[in-house]
């Protein structure tokens, strides 16, 4: 999935730089000069109902000092929008005092980055934010493939018509595989995204979770295929 990211920055050169960088890193950026423009766009999408929620961004990059409504006030507005309450927000600003950083994080930003900034650091922060779950959009909450149905909001899984009781890691593992349907997901990618980038345990942990997950999914466990020497793939349908 190509993540849509709203970039709200009044300096055109900086806004263009961020958008070009995000595009080069595989994201779909959309730039706004003012917070009002971004909020108006969000409001118009939400008014159309849940069927339009897929058009909402996966993440925001907000400058603090903007003409009109500042970034801090805009973040509070975003947090009041029900479909966006869990959406990740990065504040990217020249305000670099410790009190500014604390204020930004305490008032709704998920991460805080100061200018001038490095493109590689920006990419790393965006990537890490997008790993976090929390989006309340309908299309990402429920997924179905073959004999497996999953609801990310209620954490319920139905396999072959029966409810499957999964542990937290099993649920996160299944969710990630289904979100990347039919694609080979490497072992390192799964360990990084499910157990965390600093995980230094044995990869056998992953194999054991895959084994128990397959068992709990019963016949639908056949949809999880092992790609020897690489990782795993979740099939849309049983073979």
If you had to describe this structure to a student in words, what would you say it looks like?
This protein has nine helices and twelve strands. Helix 7 packs across helix 8 and helix 7 crosses helix 9. About 3% of the residues have low confidence.
Strand content: 15-25%
How do the strands of the widest beta sheet line up side by side? 2-1-3-4-5
Spatial separation of the terminal alpha carbons = 24 Å
Nearest-integer average pLDDT: 88
Order of helices and strands: EHEHEHEHEHHEEEEHEHHEE
Radius of gyration, in angstroms, nearest whole number? 20 Å
Percentage of helical residues? 40-55%
Sequence stretches where pLDDT stays below 50 over 5 or more residues: 134-139
In DSSP terms, counting alpha (H) and pi (I) runs of 4 or more, how many helices?
A: 9
Could you describe the largest sheet, including whether it forms a barrel?
5 strands, parallel
The tally of strands reads: 12
- Structural class of the secondary elements? alpha/beta
Tertiary shape:
elongated
């Amino acid at each position: 999935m190509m993540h849509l990211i709203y970039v709200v920055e009044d300096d055109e050169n900086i806004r263009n730089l961020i958008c070009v960088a995000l595009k080069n890193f595989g994201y779909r950026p959309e730039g706004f000069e003012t917070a009002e423009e971004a909020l108006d766009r969000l409001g118009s999408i939400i008014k159309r109902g849940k069927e339009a929620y897929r058009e909402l961004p996966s993440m925001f990059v907000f400058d603090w000092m903007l003409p009109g409504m500042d970034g801090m006030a805009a973040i509070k507005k975003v947090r009041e929008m029900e479909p966006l309450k869990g959406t990740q927000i990065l504040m990217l600003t020249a305000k670099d005092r410790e009190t500014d950083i604390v204020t930004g994080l305490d008032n709704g930003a998920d991460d805080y980055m100061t200018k001038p900034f490095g493109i590689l650091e920006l990419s790393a922060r965006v990537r890490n934010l997008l790993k976090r779950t929390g989006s309340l959009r309908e299309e990402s909450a429920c997924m179905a493939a073959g004999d497996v149905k999953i609801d990310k909001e209620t954490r319920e899984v139905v396999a072959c018509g029966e409810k499957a009781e999964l542990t937290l890691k099993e649920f996160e593992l299944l969710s990630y595989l289904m979100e990347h349907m039919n694609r080979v997901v490497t072992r390192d990618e799964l360990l990084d995204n499910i157990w965390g980038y600093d995980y230094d345990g044995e990869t056998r942990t992953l194999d054991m979770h895959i084994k128990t997950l397959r068992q709990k999914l019963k016949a639908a466990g056949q949809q999880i295929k092992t790609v020897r020497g690489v990782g795993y793939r979740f099939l849309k349908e049983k073979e």
